[in-house]
Amino acid sequence: MKVSVKVQRMYKNSQWLFLVALFGIITACSGMPTSNVTTINSNGNTNSSELPKIVTKQGKHALFVDGKPYLILGTQTNNSANYPAALKYVWPAVKKTHANTLSIPIAWEQVEPVEGQFDFGFLDILIKEAQENDVKLTLLWFATWKNNAPHYAPSWVKLNNQRFPRVMKKDGSLLNSMSPLGKETLAADKKAFVALMSYLKANDPTHTVIMVQVENEVGTYGSKRDFSPLAQQQFEQPVPAVLLNGLQLTNTGNWSQVFGKDADEYFHAWHIARFCQEITVAGKAVKNLPINVNVALRNPFHPGDGYSMGGPTDNVLDLWKIAAPDIDLLTPDIYFRDHKTVAKVLDLYSRADNPLFVSEIGNDQPYARYFFSTLGQQGIGFSPFGLDYTDYYNYPLGAKKVDDETIAPFAENYKLLKPMADVWAKLSFEGEVWGVSEPHDSQMAQKKVWNAQSTQAQKNEYAAKQEKSAKENAHKYTQNLDLGLWNAEVTYGRPMFWVAPPTGNTPSSGGALIAKLADNEFLVTAYRARVTFSPSDEIKAPYHMVERVEEGHFENGQWIFERVWNGDQTDWGLNFTARPHILKVTMAAYQP
Ligand code: DGJ
Predict the structure, then answer these.
(1) What is the pLDDT of residues 510-533, one digit of tens each?
(2) Looking at ligand 1, which residue's alpha carbon is closest to its atom 6?
(3) CB-based burial of residue 459 (10 Å sphere; 0-12 exposed, 13-18 middle, 19+ buried)?
(4) Which of 183, 272, 293, 386 has a beta carbon 3.0–4.6 Å from 310's, enabling a disulfide?
């Protein structure tokens, strides 16, 4: 019997490519400040002299590089890789990871070892080698604060506490963390930062450096604020009106009167944010690059008070946004391994006023899958920390070693996305995207069986138990996405054929990405997951089907068709393995 199919598709395959192109023109012509207008040439490319910038439209963000939305497939070096001799241990790892961007420190102590005498020799080499390796850079300005301390400030700063004061505790003792109230500290740091930006303006005309991070994990461990006489005098002043208005507070008074138990931390955060704002404004006035400030996070569920106070932790994001409006991004450094906490952090740092960029994340296997959820939160980039061969491993934050095995889970993600990075970045900015990472956490359990002392029998028994409990808990390996007219179910750890319940991957390593191309058409990719489409209540027709699933890839933004998936490949959902597959899925409904 021949079934008559009335397709409800809204857009034909070719139309979405046109829409993507049209979108480029529209964004160039509307919605952006005129000073940021991007002109896109007829071939879709732009003049590479165009400055990188963050563009925000209707609460959505993109990092524009060379006039187009850019997805940072990043890595960050270990801390002391900021010397020419170290670079030979960096580029091979960047290549192995398939990264398109490298984050690397530039230290105040190395550029201004003697006050007023600047040396940017390292940048000469770094930028040249980055270009040779076809990699963009984000520079990390290690200066007044590097994880709370002034370790990377020059000795003439670090050793002169009179001129560059540290935070004083309540008991009068000093912490090795600079006070944000040190006027000379700000002036000296700013002068060096301006010299850095002046160097970039003069020596990087094609913008290999696409972003600069001001300081590194600002804040102070061990005191909620500076209690020096100078700070105390400031603390007793009225809270600035701009902060009260920004937070929509009606009460006035000094910091204690307005903020009560939070006063010390808010005061410290305000002054560090103002310090960073002033540096940012001075730097941008020379070369207007996107600026981020990275965050030593507090645990969003159990913050306690042992975290680095004064940085842009989740409780003071609004305050930071008011104090430092010229900082483009406040970016989380993620060293929580569990899915629940990471999901919360991604949610907290992706806001209409804050583009999500994971500026650091651990380089161990469990973290790799969060690439998918980062992109699902409209992230503009992801940058695992310490993926180089400089012979340092920051376990237990990250992996116990850096070799091919460590790099592989990150490399497979970038290998999948790299050929379509600009397509994804556009779709993410223009339209709707979803991304999920496998929700259960397997690593702690895994460690037990990986123990060298375990017998094979113990390992088998453990594996059997794990399988049983996983079957009883199939819902833990399932995520449901509302795509509009259609829903998607993502499940992990099941055979490709039939409907056995999902039991999760071992180790947890799956993830999926979906972008809407039209109401009934989706770009879908994943690793180690099954993606199944079903109609939402909005589909009124009683029958529905997967109309067509094309596998293909992107070349220069164009979809290159390879084959159609049908039969076994679609009957049980779309099963993704460890091999990259990119699909264009068209759903349809029909009447009897
Ligand atoms: C976070 C910091 O930002 C990094 O520079 C590094 O110190 C890691 N912590 C730990 O390896």
Answers:
(1) 999 999 999 999 999 999 999 999
(2) 79
(3) middle
(4) 272
- pTM for this structure? 0.89
Kindly give the number of the ligand 1 atom that is closest to the alpha carbon of 394: 11
- Could you tell me which of 4, 7, 56 has the C-alpha nearest to residue 588? 7
SS3 375: helix
- Encoding tokens for residue 528? 């180690």
Ligand 1 pocket test, pick from 78, 139, 151, 217 with the greatest ligand atom count within 8 Å of Cβ, gives: 217
User: Is 330 within 8 Å of 345 (Cβ atoms)?
Assistant: no
**Ligand 1 in contact with 50 (CB < 6 A)?**
no
Beta carbon of 361 within 6 Å of any ligand 1 atom: no
Among protein residues, the one whose CA lies closest to atom 9 of ligand 1 = 147
Q: Per-residue DSSP letters for 411-465?
A: HHHHHHHGGGHHHHHHHHHHS-EEEEE--S--HHHHHHHH-TT--HHHHHHHHHH
Q: Find out whether the beta carbon of 216 lies less than 6 Å from any atom of ligand 1.
A: yes
pLDDT digits (tens, 9 = 90+) for 216-267: 999 999 999 999 999 999 999 999 999 999 999 999 999 999 999 999 999 9
Contact 323, 340 (CB under 8 A): no
For residue 168, what are the β-bridge partners? 174
What is residue 150's predicted lDDT score, i.e. its pLDDT?
98
If you measure from the C-alpha of residue 352 to the centroid of ligand 1, how many angstroms do you get, rounded to a whole number? 27
Q: Is the minimum distance from the CB of 333 to ligand 1 under 6 angstroms?
A: yes
The residue among 88, 208, 78, 63 whose CA lies nearest residue 137 is 208
At residue 41, the pLDDT reads 39
3-state SS, 41-59, equals CCCCCCCCCCCCEEEEECC
Contact 61, 55 (CB under 8 A): yes
Rounded to whole angstroms, how far apart are CA atoms 110 and 122? 9
Ligand 1 proximity of 147 Cβ (cutoff 6 Å): yes
DSSP 35: G
Counting as low any pLDDT under 50, the low residues of the chain are 1-47, 445-450
Cα gap 360→350, rounded to integer Å: 15
